[in-house]
Each structure stands twice: as structure tokens, then as C-alpha cells.
């Protein structure tokens, strides 16, 4: 199979990435033969121009690790890091000034390469907690870009609570992170990876709103062959596939781009084994869609390496 090289070399308005940069199943599809684990980030960053740094949610990395990540990525690469769960889930954004200071002190070497600092809130963080969120957004280091992901049902009910949340985020110029898990939950619990993802991923309505300049879409897709496998098993009522769900984003993403916004699109699959292939395919579909509306020069493209060049590089898909 043909290989990819430098998919998003000089991004200007659009950022594409995955849930992580290191996965044992991506050796041939992303890294190539001979690439060591410590070199995976550098290889990942030649294809994608952003990534979800979810590990910071569980533990703050060592500062030397942070500096290594900085060295491994080009100047135009952008990480997105979750604030630690001690701040967002245990202290619920309160009485966490020292933890916040310590976290950003460690992460300081990556300030210039972090596009969004993500504040993921638990499902029990509800409308009554909005004043706490407002105070917290005044407390975090200013001049950085933040995104908030909520999971309380009231924030998806299109009522007063959601309007209050959106007004707060707009006033603070903070992005509302959008979780699109429709493709995942369209699938029956047919294997261990899907069952696990059903348990861990939130099932919330998709409200495509941009409250600031960097709307974030987390698209939890299916393995591309999932629907075909169900058909082979004789399932008569087949769910919609990835493309059917992504049609909404084919319409919305160009609108944000036309408004001068810089959206982030993160592609997941239940176990993320085939997430790179899905991300690349959906990006290529989006690229074709944008061609009629926005100059292609404003997007960096995923390109193919000629076969003879691939052989010389020793990389294989």
C-alpha cells in the first residue's frame, strides 16, 4: 500500500490529530520499520499537526519528558493537554491554586506548542457549578487558549443551563469541546473493544457550536469495516457508517473555516488501532469538499509517497 508523508506540513486553518501519538498497532501505518518507541512522536508529527495529550489527566509528566516532546515536534505542531484530574474531578476546580501553578510550571517548555488546554468536567458538574467554572477561568494563566468539555445532561438540553454555559464560554473566549460518539453507539456491543468504549465514552447529543476561535470536535468513529462485518453476520438492520455520521462535519467544518476559525478534529476508534487510516480517509473527503468553497492552499494536504521512494525509506503500510 502507498505510504503517507508529511500530511499537514504547514497548517494554517485546520488541525487534524488522533487520541494519542503512540500505539503498538501503528508501527507500519504511521511509524515505519525500525522506528523505536521514543521516536514515535517525531514520526507522528510528520503526518498530523495536533494530538490529544490525555496522559496529563492522570499524571503530570516530568519536565524532562516535556522538553523531549518539544524537541521531537516541529514549530507548527500543537499539543492539546487535559488539566489533571486532581483539579477537574477531585477538587472540582476549587481550592486548587497550588496544583494549577505546579502543573503549568512543569508544562512551561510546551506553552508555545500547546494549542488548547482542555478542562474536562465530570458528569456531576452541573448548572449550579457554573459560577465555580467562571471563577476558575479567571484563575488560570491568561493569554492561553482553553477548551471546556461538559457531560452533565442539562448542558445538552437547549435550555437555560446550556445557554448560560455558552454565554460564559463566549464571554471568556473559551472553546466548547464537542464529543461526537454517534458512530460508536450506533454499533452493537459485538466485541471487547466496542463494549469497553461503550462503557467509557459519554453518549451525549452533538451541539455544533463555536464559542471561540478553535472549536474542537472529538469524532469517535467505528472501525471502517464494522458495518460490513455486521452484514456478513446476517444483521438485517445495519447501522449508519462513519461517512454517514461525518456528513454533518463536511457541512460544518467549512463554515468555521470560512469564518476564519481554526478547528481541531480528533479521530478515535474503539481501540484506536485503525484511527490513523480513518482520520486520513475522512480528511481526504473533507479536502475534496472544501475545494469548492475554500482555497486548497489554506490547507496542508496528506500526500502519497511514490512507491520507489517508499522502498528507499524502508517504510511499509
Automatic annotation (TrEMBL):
InterPro entries referenced in this protein's UniProt entry, alphabetically: DUF72, UPF0759_sf
Matches recorded under Pfam families: DUF72 (PF01904)
Annotated protein name in UniProt: DUF72 domain-containing protein
Amino acid at each position: 500500500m502507498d505510504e503517507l508523508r508529511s500530511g499537514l506540513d504547514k497548517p494554517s486553518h485546520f488541525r487534524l490529530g488522533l487520541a494519542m501519538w503512540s500505539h503498538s498497532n501503528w508501527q507500519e501505518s504511521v511509524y515505519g520499520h525500525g522506528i523505536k518507541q521514543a521516536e514515535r512522536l517525531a514520526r507522528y508529527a510528520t503526518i498530523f499537526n495536533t494530538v490529544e495529550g490525555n496522559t496529563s489527566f492522570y499524571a503530570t509528566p516530568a519536565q524532562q519528558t516535556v522538553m523531549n516532546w518539544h524537541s521531537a515536534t516541529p514549530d507548527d505542531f500543537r499539543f492539546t493537554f487535559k488539566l489533571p484530574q486532581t483539579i477537574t474531578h477531585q477538587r472540582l476546580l476549587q481550592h486548587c491554586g497550588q496544583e494549577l501553578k505546579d502543573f503549568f510550571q512543569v508544562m512551561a517548555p510546551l506553552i508555545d506548542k500547546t494549542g488548547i488546554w482542555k478542562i474536562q468536567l465530570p458528569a456531576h458538574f452541573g448548572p449550579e457549578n457554573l459560577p465555580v467554572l467562571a471563577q476558575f477561568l479567571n484563575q488560570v494563566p491568561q493569554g492561553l487558549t482553553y477548551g471546556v468539555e461538559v457531560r452533565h445532561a442539562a448542558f445538552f438540553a437547549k435550555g437555560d443551563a446550556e445557554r448560560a454555559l455558552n454565554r460564559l464560554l463566549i464571554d471568556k473566549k473559551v472553546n466548547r469541546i464537542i464529543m461526537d460518539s454517534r458512530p460508536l453507539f450506533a454499533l452493537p456491543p459485538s466485541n471487547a473493544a466496542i463494549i469497553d468504549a461503550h462503557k467509557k465514552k459519554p453518549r451525549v447529543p452533538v451541539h455544533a457550536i463555536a464559542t471561540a476561535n478553535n472549536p474542537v470536535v472529538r469524532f469517535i468513529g467505528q472501525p471502517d469495516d464494522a458495518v460490513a462485518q455486521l452484514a456478513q453476520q446476517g444483521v438485517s438492520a445495519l447501522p449508519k457508517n462513519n461517512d454517514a455520521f461525518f456528513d454533518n462535519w463536511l457541512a460544518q467544518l467549512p463554515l468555521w473555516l470560512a469564518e476564519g476559525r481554526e478547528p481541531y478534529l480528533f479521530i478515535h476508534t474503539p481501540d484506536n488501532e485503525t484511527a490513523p487510516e480513518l482520520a486520513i480517509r475522512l480528511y481526504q473527503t473533507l479536502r475534496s469538499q472544501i475545494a469548492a468553497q475554500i482555497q486548497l492552499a489554506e490547507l496542508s494536504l496528506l500526500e502519497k509517497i511514490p512507491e520507489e521512494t517508499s522502498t528507499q525509506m524502508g517504510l511499509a503500510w
